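cron nightly-structures :: item 1 of 1
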Amino acid sequence: MVDGGVGWEARIELGFERRHRRTVMARRHYGPLAVQKPFYPEGEICHTYLIHPPGGIEVWREGMPLLIERARLEGGSNLLSAHWGLMGRTVVGTLVALPANHALLEAAREAVVPAPGDLFSATLLGEVLVCRYLGGQGEAARRCFTSIWSATRPHLLGRPACYPRIWFHLRRGK
């Protein structure tokens, strides 16, 4: 469940099962969280894009929180320009992967060489890998997360990296 702190709640539960030689999605949601639609760039394996408004990331398993993160960025706030905040950078991104371990953490860290002036971090919180980007260009953020995806997906799923469809269209300039 996600609580944005301004009177809205959202909940999404995704379930996947095998039918007719491919993975299909069963889902339930309440509020603004939604899955755009399932995609099948690898044929039988379902890819989903979770659409959510800004306000936080919450990951729960069996009623226990694994990660709760909330962000409140307000125009004109000191947070946007202060050294302890965003330092005037305009692009912020987070990638979360699990189950993770120290080998996955090191793979993520070794995969990324941030552009000059950009910041990148990878942290292991229990079994949750949290990767963050802070910089000034969306393209640099995409390169950062594409590198992480390429390095970590084989460890997580035992499959080669297959770029999400939306990244493929961005890479081709569409």
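cron nightly-structures :: done
Residues 22 and 109 are 33 Å apart (CA to CA).
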